[in-house]
């Protein structure tokens, strides 16, 4: 991750920083969010570099010399598509589903939103917990006084009179295609502040659903993958890679052991450049 990507991610974390100390679980969540933002930024940077490498004006670039030496192998993340991480089949509700049926389906499926479909399974909208809360709030307190109350009531007027999924839903729906890249779907979810995205195929028919959690897991490398790459680096940088013990937890790499301290800075620098490493701890001792 570049310095710019680190900075962008950290700014987002600071913006959401609470006034009280974080709990352990909150620290893990914020760390995951930083890795998520960095992964999206990294994917965007890779796409920009790819596009800038293409020629302008429709001309093709010259091929490399036939005898050119191959570039050394580097780790490249697989291009994941939405189809690889979506959940199928997806739960949905028909447009004529009553208010209570929608609420029961949300509770049963343990999701915060559901696609609303027509008789041909086309996605026509999305109904969420907030849509149901808007109706329930107006039902509980139909009259609010004052300018703020009138404005609040005006904004929720349509929701308060809806009795079916079609009259409660938000539309037009924001959807993604199964062939879209996970990074692009993540941008769509982040831009719209959406927790779930319906996945639509031919003619807008529902084929699955992908959540922010699904996208997060796809974009963040597993600690085991990072560990394998660090151990490979140790084999190239150290005379005896077995002299060090490497552990990885939530993207933080710890290197311990008795080694030649002159070799450590270069090794740690290489570790910091590994995709999705968020921190490096040097616990080595001079041999």
Précis, in short:
Residues 62-74 have a biased composition (Pro residues). By secondary structure, the chain is of the alpha/beta class.
Topology, pairings included?
Blueprint (H helix, E strand, L loop, with lengths): L2 H13 L8 H29 L29 H4 L7 E2 L4 H11 L3 E5 L5 E6 H12 L5 H10 L1 H5 L3 H4 L13 H11 L3 E5 L5 E6 H8 L3 H15 L6 E6 L2 E8 L4 H9 L6 E8 L1
Parallel strand pairs: 1-2, 7-8
Antiparallel strand pairs: 2-3, 4-5, 6-7
Helix pairs in contact: 1-2, 2-9, 9-10, 11-12
The ordered string of helix (H) and strand (E) elements is HHHEHEEHHHHHEEHHEEHE
Kindly state the percentage of residues in helix.
Answer: 40-55%
CATH architecture of the largest domain: Roll
Low-confidence stretches: 1-7, 9-20, 58-77
Computed CA radius of gyration, to the nearest angstrom: 25 Å
For the record, give the distance between the C-alpha atoms at the N and C termini, rounded to a whole number: 31 Å
What structural class should be given to the helix and strand makeup?
Answer: alpha/beta
Strand order of the largest sheet: 1-2-3
Task: Please describe what this structure looks like.
- The chain has about 290 residues and is α/β, with parallel strands linked by helices.
- The protein folds into three domains: about 5-50; about 80-220, CBS-domain, CATH 3.10.580.10; about 225-285, 2-Layer Sandwich (Histidine-containing Protein, Chain: A).
- Helices cover about 45% and strands about 15% of the residues.
- The chain is built from twelve helices and eight strands.
- It has helices at about 5-15, 25-50, 80-85, 100-110, 130-140, 145-155, 155-160, 165-170, 180-190, 210-220, 225-235, 265-270; strands at about 95, 115, 125-130, 195-200, 205-210, 245-250, 250-260, 280-285.
- A three-stranded mixed β-sheet has the order 1-2-3.
- A hairpin with a 5-residue loop joins strand 2 and strand 3 (about 125-130).
- Helix 2 (about 25-50) crosses helix 9 (about 180-190) and helix 11 runs antiparallel to helix 12.
- The model is unreliable at about 1-5, about 10-20 and about 60-75 (pLDDT under 50).
């Amino acid at each position: 991750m570049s310095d710019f990507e680190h900075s962008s991610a950290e700014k987002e974390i600071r913006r959401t920083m609470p006034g009280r100390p974080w709990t352990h679980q909150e620290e893990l969540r914020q760390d995951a969010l930083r890795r998520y933002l960095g992964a999206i930024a990294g994917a965007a940077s890779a796409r920009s570099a790819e596009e800038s490498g293409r020629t302008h004006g429709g001309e093709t670039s010259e091929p490399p010399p036939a005898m050119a030496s191959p570039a050394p192998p580097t780790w490249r993340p697989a291009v994941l598509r939405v189809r690889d991480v979506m959940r199928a089949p997806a739960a949905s509700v028909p447009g004529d589903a009553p208010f209570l049926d929608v609420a029961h389906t949300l509770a049963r499926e343990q999701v915060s939103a559901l696609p609303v479909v027509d008789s041909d399974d086309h996605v026509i909208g999305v109904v969420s917990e907030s849509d149901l809360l808007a109706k329930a709030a107006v039902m509980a307190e139909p009259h609010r006084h004052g300018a703020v109350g009138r404005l609040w009531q005006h904004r929720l007027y349509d929701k308060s009179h809806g009795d079916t999924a079609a009259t409660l839903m938000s539309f037009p729906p924001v959807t993604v295609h199964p062939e879209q890249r996970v990074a692009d779907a993540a941008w769509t979810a982040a831009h719209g502040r959406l927790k779930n995205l319906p996945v639509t195929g031919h003619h807008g028919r529902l084929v699955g659903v992908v959540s922010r959690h699904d996208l997060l897991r796809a974009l963040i490398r597993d600690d085991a993958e990072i560990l394998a790459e660090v151990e490979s680096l140790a084999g190239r940088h150290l005379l005896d890679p077995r002299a060090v013990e490497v552990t990885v937890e939530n993207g933080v790499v710890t290197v311990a052991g008795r080694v030649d301290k002159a070799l450590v800075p270069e090794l740690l620098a290489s570790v910091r450049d590994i995709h999705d490493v968020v921190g490096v701890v040097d616990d080595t001792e001079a041999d």
